Amino acid sequence: MEDDGPRAVSRSLSLDIQRMASAPLDALPGDLKRDTSGHLSAEALAIIRGEVTMERKTLLYSNSLRRRSIEVDTK
Length: 75
Description:
Strand content: under 5%
Distance between the termini: 22 Å
Number of strands: 0
Low-confidence stretches: none
Number of domains: 1
Shape: globular
Largest sheet: none
Number of helices: 3
């Protein structure tokens, strides 16, 4: 599958939303830990609320690429 930048971030966060659909939507971004089972990540909550700009999606994507690069380098 070809990596298509910010759309890949949206797709990834959409999967997060689907997987953790039982989260309370009144939680604020930053209130929830990333790996808390049954809860949405702060980024997913922000997307639901429409608070994520294209610039933020681009930043998330570049951070994701950097993280993947580090993971590959350490293997």
